[in-house]
Design brief:
alpha/beta, 7-stranded mixed sheet, two-stranded antiparallel ribbon, 3 helices, about 20% helix
Length: about 170
Amino acid sequence: MPEGTAYHPPTTSTEWETPDWFFDRLHEEFGFQLDACASERNTKCDVHISEEKNCLTSEWEGFKRAWFGKLFTAWMNPPWGRGVGKFVQRAYEQSKNHDIVVACLLPSSTDTKWWRDWVWKASEVRFVTSRLHFVCEDGRTGPCPTGACVVVFCPWSSGPPSFSLISGKED
């Protein structure tokens, strides 16, 4: 290993925090009011759905506040394990059922069933042009082992999505 290179042993945790600068870039565009998959430690919004409240079973409209006619928007960076597909399905359903724009940070797993079943119903997909460096629970950072994308579900769209690129480098 080259001198000065930090080694981070693999972890089994699926709780990796979105880099602030990446979230901030999207938050500037979308104005997120809800973080749909968060803990107190890593939430990106004032209002969040914790693991205990469970975004897979709770109705997200219950987290809406008086937005005075503004479109309600949610951020979701779900656990990237084998069960990620059920989170993508939930994002789509909550978008449609409650008029919520949901932006999801997901692995670019174009060969999966959940991609075929749910991402093709999105409004847009933005492929991240480089590997993001997520933040682990203990504060360490490390490159994502796979490509990433932002999938946006809009209540007025049932796909197919438009495709574009988004920089994965901090400006």
